[in-house]
Automatic annotation (TrEMBL):
<protein>
    <recommendedName>
        <fullName>DUF4842 domain-containing protein</fullName>
    </recommendedName>
</protein>
<feature type="domain" description="DUF4842">
    <location>
        <begin position="460"/>
        <end position="661"/>
    </location>
</feature>
<dbReference type="Pfam" id="PF13448">
    <property type="entry name" value="DUF4114"/>
</dbReference>
<dbReference type="InterPro" id="IPR025193">
    <property type="entry name" value="DUF4114"/>
</dbReference>
<dbReference type="Pfam" id="PF16130">
    <property type="entry name" value="DUF4842"/>
</dbReference>
<dbReference type="InterPro" id="IPR032295">
    <property type="entry name" value="DUF4842"/>
</dbReference>
<feature type="domain" description="DUF4114">
    <location>
        <begin position="319"/>
        <end position="397"/>
    </location>
</feature>
<dbReference type="InterPro" id="IPR031025">
    <property type="entry name" value="LruC_dom"/>
</dbReference>
Length: 666
């Protein structure tokens, strides 16, 4: 308390103002709290939101991605794909680390018992539901999929075996599709996957997404076969590494090859060319599968070794120089309900990179060279929206110079990890202005709605905040100023811009003077502020605060300054904060522990914590509600009368009636 004591000495000459700031009722002599200065009142903090630990592991190495946390399901199914609902707001938006992991904290309404993890990043599930437990939120994709696979009791069809037939097109297999690499299980998972998954090159997924934008026509990258297919320039082995899929269908993909410079010219030549299935079901978990026990078989990084079959039909891991490799997709080629690959019967169910043979000569394949990693990325369009990200994979060649990547479009890395801005966090603050005495507890003396958006960098460092505070109601007769203290030093704030504020507080760079933490005052009188409308605050920060360690609840400490005479800049004032939120350095210590306040104080009556602004009965002096449309109680109607579930919420210390604020009596 040394800093506060020195400030009291500095301001000792303004005792006249101090008397005015102590409230609108006469205070009795100090007698201290009933619990020997420890405070605590009824032991309840009246919090309607809580900071919850969150640990997420998407089980994907080499991929730094953006994800969000929602308290309600944010998606609907449209045309077989999951799309985000309009108007549903996330509670957290952040980057994972480079292995798709995140560990931090998220602020949730206390009524929340489940959350939805949502991502638009390639390679991650679109939406996954998970529970909120006493220990927080914990999600591991590998464990989730293992649990999903354990439920496959009713899916007992036999696995398919490898198959290779010699010869060309036949009436039963008009496109000569073969499965010689191996068999697959009921879900379409190959039994010939490499033992270890590949580590996706750092940033590759982001760079691909920056080029093949979702929901965008990317057909400018779909080029003729001579630009898309891969030329083997020296003997090399090839691995196909799965990256991602965003399709409404369970597609199969594969490859074929021919001598460089001797591409098939006639339809019959193309039909006779053997086509080898590489992945029978290119599906990864996205949250929208309706088959009980079905587990989408693929995850990013899974890889298969492609085989070259000589004239004698014997497989080899090496492709000879002078061979060109082409690609095909079989849209909806895997029948999930049957657990089988369905051979195509026409060019509606088979599309290749040699587009001359596709219906309408449709170009369905893009081939992009990623300069940063040296990988060639292949993207397929299955026929729906021309974004060419329905199946994505890349090639690993050994030696690296074994394939010719010249003349392919180069991925412009652009800004791999741009700053991100989350959805607005909305709520309502309500204050009683007679503290430390009990008032009428209608919780309508000062009512202010807020909307806060955070902007963070790739390391989840907080670099900017935008707040919109809307004064809604003034139900008291006193003049109440409003501001908030941020849990950061003033040095962490680079700049503050405020529109439509009306505070007369002494400031430096938008921050109130004589404060060790950043304090922003917005208006002097709630009565005038209601008439003036919303106040917008943009705060630029130095990046020293990490959003994986803080939330709006822990960062923001809102308060009102109450006086019958009006706000006086630079002097001690009577501040009313949320329960257990500490006062600022300019708060008058005199009211603490007096009348109905049960704050923790020392022998001199100075507030010491951990308890601040607490009472012994049902009613708080201030409350923060996670809704922007709080139904304000009528004048002189106690909050527990206006909201019948309020009393049960308090007496159970928040265990019951957690959404009382959604159920007014009328």
């Amino acid at each position: 308390m040394k800093a506060k004591e020195s400030l009291f000495l500095l301001l000792s000459g303004i005792t006249a103002f101090t008397v005015l700031m102590t409230g609108c009722v006469k205070q009795p002599d100090y007698s201290g709290p009933d619990d020997n200065g420890q405070g605590g009142g009824n032991g309840f903090d009246y919090a309607t939101v809580a900071d919850v630990k969150i640990n997420v592991d998407y089980s994907m190495k080499g991929n730094k991605a953006v994800f969000e946390v929602f308290a309600e399901n944010p998606v609907i199914e449209k045309d077989g794909l999951l799309v985000r609902k309009e108007g549903v707001k996330s509670l957290l938006k952040a980057y994972t680390d480079r292995d798709s992991k995140y560990s931090g904290v998220v602020n949730l309404p206390t009524a929340t018992d489940r959350v939805w993890l949502y991502s638009e990043s390639y390679g991650l599930p679109t939406c996954v539901e998970t529970q909120v437990t006493a220990s927080g939120i914990s999600f591991n994709l590998d464990s989730f999929l293992e649990n999903l696979a354990s439920q496959r009791k009713d899916r007992t069809a036999a696995a398919a075996q490898a198959s290779l037939t010699r010869g060309g097109s036949t009436p039963d297999n008009i496109l000569n599709v073969q499965t010689p690499l191996g068999g697959y299980d009921i879900d379409g998972k190959p039994d010939y996957l490499e033992k270890n998954a590949a580590t996706v090159p750092d940033g590759l997924m982001n760079r691909v997404q920056n080029v093949l934008l979702p929901g965008t026509n990317n057909s400018q990258y779909a080029l003729p076969a001579e630009k898309v297919n891969i030329e083997i320039t020296q003997e090399a082995s090839l691995k196909l590494v799965f990256l991602s899929e965003l399709s409404q269908w369970a597609n199969a993909i594969g490859y074929y090859y021919y001598e460089t410079g001797h591409a098939p010219k006639t339809l019959q030549e193309f039909l006779d060319l053997p086509k080898y299935v590489a992945l029978p079901n290119c599906s990864m978990y996205n949250g929208n599968y309706e088959y009980p026990g079905y587990t989408p078989p693929l995850k990013p990084g899974m890889q298969v070794r492609l085989k070259y079959f000589g004239q004698d039909g014997q497989p080899s891991d090496k492709f000879p120089a002078g061979i060109t490799v082409g690609w095909f997709i079989m849209p909806s080629g895997f029948k999930i309900s049957w657990g089988q690959l369905i051979l195509p019967t026409n060019f509606g169910t088979f599309k290749s990179s040699n587009s001359d043979f596709n219906n309408y000569q449709e170009k369905v394949c893009v081939s992009l060279y990623d300069k940063a990693s040296g990988k060639t990325v292949i993207g397929f369009e299955d026929g729906a929206d021309s974004d060419y990200k329905d199946v994505l994979f890349y090639l690993d060649a050994d030696p690296k110079g074994g394939i010719d990547d010249s003349d392919k479009p180069v991925i412009d890395p652009g800004e791999e990890y741009p700053d991100i801005t989350g959805d607005p966090i909305e709520g309502t603050l309500a204050f009683e202005d007679l503290w430390p005495s009990q008032g009428d507890y209608d919780m309508n003396d000062v009512v202010v709605a807020y909307s806060t958006t955070f902007t963070t960098d790739k390391d989840n460092k907080l670099i900017a905040m935008k707040d919109v505070f809307t004064p809604l109601h003034s139900g008291g007769s006193l003049k109440s100023a409003f501001g908030y203290q941020l849990d950061m030093p003033t040095t962490a704030v680079k700049n503050v811009t405020i529109d439509h504020f009306s505070s007369s507080a002494q400031t430096v760079g938008g921050l109130e003077s004589n404060q060790s933490k950043a304090v922003i005052m917005l208006f002097d009188d709630i009565h005038q502020a209601v008439a003036q409308g919303p106040i917008t605050v943009v705060t630029e920060l130095d990046g020293s605060v990490s959003m994986d360690k803080t939330t709006r609840k822990s960062l923001y400490n809102p308060f009102v300054c109450v006086s019958s005479e009006g706000f006086a800049p630079g002097v001690l004032r009577k501040e009313v904060h949320l329960t257990n939120y500490a006062p600022t350095l300019l708060a008058d210590p005199y009211p603490f522990g007096r009348n109905d306040d049960k704050s923790s104080v020392d022998k001199q009556g100075n507030p010491t914590g951990p308890y601040y602004y607490v009472t012994a009965d049902l009613h708080p002096f201030a409350i923060d509600l996670p809704v922007p449309d709080y139904h304000i109680p009528d004048e002189s109607v106690k909050i527990d009368d206006f909201y019948p579930d309020f009393a049960g919420w308090v007496t159970s210390k928040g265990e019951k009636n957690k959404e009382w604020y959604l159920k007014p009596a009328k």
